[in-house]
Amino acid sequence: RVREAVVSTQSTGGTSTFDYSNMEDRAKPRARCYLYTLTICNFLAIFLIVFNLALFPFVFQALVNSQVVLTNTTLSFTQWLKPTPAIYKIVTVYNVTNPDVVAVGGQPELQALGPYYFREYREKINVEEVYDEDLWFNEKKWYEFDYNMTNSNLTNTSKPLDPSKDKFTTFNLAYIGVGFNLTYSGTPMEIVAATTVAAAEGEQSLFMHRTISEVVFGYKDKLLTALKIAKPYLSDTVQLVYNMSTVDETTISRVNTGRKNISLLGQYSHWQGQNKLSFWCSPEAQQINGTEGLFFAPNLDKTKPITTFVDDLFRANPMEFVGEEECMGMKTYKYFIPKYVLANSTINPLNKGFYADCPNGLMNLTAAVMAPVFASKPSFLDAEEWLQKEVTGLPPADNNTMDTNLWVEPITGALVKARKQLQANMMLMNLPKFPKLNKLRAKPRYVPISKIIETGGMDDDLVQTFRNKVFKPRDDFVMILWALFGLCTFLGGMFCFLFVRIVRNNQKESTLLIPDEGKGSNVYS
Q: Who has the most CB within 10 Å: 47, 266, 268, 344?
């Protein structure tokens, strides 16, 4: 390697010499220093990317858990305490247009009235946390009739719907309930007493004519009031929709906070003062579990069902994954109620505890409401075909519009949208010892009396708050990773540039020739 270049010129006075060695000796260590620095920075950036990719799932999961557990500072707790998005109960009732024919065992003709929109308000009060694990609380629930939504399609010729004024003909729930229960569990003396009281009170009738509000929210029945004198434990209030009646605010419910075990988030262990539902006949059926339906444990697994506690049915209700859908701008898992949930005990032995000795597609609520009421999906969806043929006036069953569905964000388990649909049906059959009921046919007939649709979920404001608290940190992290990736690319490019330049300079120096010294000679590097 040349250490010194000498340029000789012939001139008067001697020889001129230029020494480049000092410049080269200073430049080469500097270039190597840059190369080493870039190498270290590049490896550091790569390490940060790999480290963050490995660590982030745990950090993000901790962030999600911190936002979904039921503690005072979380978004889940705020919405659980008092949901801000609108929740609606949409009620349609079925008017019996041929009561005289039905009274002698004929086929009922039904006329749908409604739908009537009721805005639901919920609020948890007297909330206490016990051992960082459970929340004990009372609940307030009330409803307001929404005139505008109910009459949004009102024409100039149609009459406005008003549940406090609109009346319809339906079945006499109290008389049929008393007759059914005493036929199977009453003594002859109790039957005689009940029929005598019913005659005295003018309640010996298969039908009644009442307002929508009375049937939906409850009314005092004269027959039950009279019987209550002999049996004080009886309720004298009749209501068609259980969870739209006035809630007893003194009863205590209990849910898990998820703080110690996130998989138990929001799970009921007590409901309205009960730790089991004693009117069912098996330990599995009596168990109270499932969530309110506002949220579930994070990181949903498509292969596993989610469970809600449905107060309309007085039971835990498993729901299965049906597909992925975008809802409110977010990827969600869509769930539905599978057929086996409402299957009879022959097909699904687990339903034997719910007295499911009935046609497929029906849920026997007789033990819970003390009347022969059976729940089903609207228009007997997923039920035996002959059930719909027993009545006229029902729309055809449709899986796309009549099933119960939940749309849940899978990472957090938060409910994005809900549509719950149920139909209440009265079982009519011959009860020979009760006047007006002894002319019905012997084979049971299940007649729809109402359809209830419950809608709810997130609104635009809650979606934005949800994104800011949960997903914005994740998005910011992704941006940081991309920035680090860009920095790695830049540093890698600089490293390659300096490395190539140093190699080329070394190759040039190794091939440089130094000619013999002589008069008039020039040396070029």
A: 266
User: Distance between CA atoms of 375 and 448, rounded to whole angstroms?
Assistant: 9
Residues in the chain, pLDDT under 50: 1-16, 18, 20, 23, 513-514, 519-521, 523-525
Name all contacts of 287-291 with Cβ < 8 Å and 24+ positions apart. Answer: 287/316, 288/316, 289/316, 290/316, 290/317, 291/255, 291/265, 291/266, 291/267
Q: What are phi and psi of 58, to 5 degrees?
A: -75, -40
Q: What is the pLDDT of residues 231-248, one digit of tens each?
A: 787 788 888 766 666 556
pTM (2 d.p.): 0.80
Nearest to 390 by CA among 439, 355, 434, 428: 428
Q: How far apart are CA 434 and CA 203, in angstroms?
A: 11
Q: Looking at this protein, which amino acid is placed at residue 487?
A: L
Under 8 Å between Cβ of 447 and 93:
no
- Closest C-alpha among 337, 380, 338, 378 to residue 358: 380
Q: Is there a contact between 474 and 57 (Cβ–Cβ < 8 Å)?
A: no
CA 348, 349, 350: angle at the middle one, nearest 5? 90
- Reduce the secondary structure of 284-328 to three states and give it as a string: HHHECCCECCCECCCCCCCCCCEEEEECCCCEEEEEEEEEEEEEC
Q: What is the DSSP code (8-state) at residue 339?
A: G
363 strand-pairing partners:
375
| Helix or strand run (H / E) with residue 457 | strand 445-457
- The number of beta carbons lying within 10 Å of the beta carbon of residue 126 is 11
Q: 102 with 206: CB under 8 angstroms?
A: yes
CB atoms within 10 A of CB 397: 19
Read off the tokens for 302: 């498509």
CA distances (Å), 56 to each of 86, 471, 472, 520, in order?
A: 35, 13, 14, 72
